[in-house]
Known about the structure:
Keywords: Signal
Signal peptide: 1-27
Number of domains: 1
Largest sheet: none
Distance between the termini: 80 Å
Protein name: DUF2637 domain-containing protein
Shape: flat
Region (Disordered): 131-179
Number of helices: 5
Strand content: under 5%
Helix content: 55-70%
Pfam families: DUF2637
Amino acid sequence: MSWFERVAFAVTCLCLTAVTCATFVLAFDAIRAEAIATHVVFPGAAWRVPIAIDGGELAAAASPFIRIQRGDRPRAAELILAIGLMAPSAITNDAHAGSEWLAKLLARLPPFVQVLSLEILLSALHERQHRNVKAPAPATNPTPTQPDRRAEAMSATTVSTSKPEPRPAVPTGTLHAAS
């Protein structure tokens, strides 16, 4: 990878991370405010609601890549969870936005942008990792070699001079229960 490609990749990853974080914060504020306004939880615990919704959304979106890295198949439940958590996030953002249609439209975007930017970032990292894996070097001697029969003959004629250690005697009758 050239110097320019590495810098472009780093800037792209930085931008995608910033977008993911910014959309998380936007959605966090809206969901937290709505949780307080609708008395879902008491105000001191309102931060837990956006963590549960948007944090779960991000975790569900990232877990297929973790499974792929381990050689496992992604599960449908992860996709269903990520999509299922985008809906309450978008609805809550919409409710927090007010009555103007443009505000509602802009408020619905963060959950979708958040998941998609995370997916793009993880895909880029995954592709880069697999691009940097080098193929094994070709064998220097492509013809099969015959095994060294001399080593086999010598190991067959070697005699062991060590004596086996005696086994300790196990007392009999000590483990039986009294009748």
